[in-house]
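Morning - adenosine monophosphate inputs below, output right after.
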Amino acid sequence: MPRLLILGRQGSGKGTQCVRLSEHYGVPHISTGDILREAVSAGTDFGLKAAKIMEAGDLVPDDVMLGIIRDRLAEPDARAGFLLDGFPRTSAQADGLAELLGSLGRALDLAVNIDVDTEVVVERMLARGRADDTEEAIRQRLNLYEEQTAPLLERYRDEGILVTVDGVGTEEEVFARLLATVDAHT
Ligand code: AMP
């Protein structure tokens, strides 16, 4: 079972495709955005802090995110494979992930970049009308993606595990491209 991470701008259709990929490959879908939203709904102290950060379109601190991922990857269902969605988002998170996987004697098989242009994702996100999707927060999240997350593409390219899939098309078309690409490289 593959160990995958999926990269792509917010609004690239990444979440929907990750649900389908995780079903197809029988690996848990580990979405840090979903984990944080659960903490927000649970109304814990941490959830309240996270909610403020998420509403502003900022990033939750790296050490907090690494703790969440460490705990999640320690669960038995993640032993054979997993699909990471929304993590890592910074080079510190990518460093932490590499160290964590190294200590567990595991390695990533593939980093999959779902590629959709910025203008297209802004339109899509405004159309979906989620509570944290104000235009200002969308712009802030996309800026952070370019500054902090896009450099990770270079890192995984250098490691020889990056593949890029065109994310423009119907859900079915993009899913078919993803399967073909992952199957060809794992
Ligand atoms: P997402 O659903 O992946 O777009 O995540 C929603 C929000 O949760 C983001 O805008 C961030 O505020 C926060 N978040 C999710 N994953 C991370 C992460 N790996 N590092 C920092 N913040 C995150």
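Note: Residues 10, 32-33, 36, 53-54, 57-60, 65, 86-87, 89, 93, 141 surround adenosine monophosphate (CB under 6 Å).

O.
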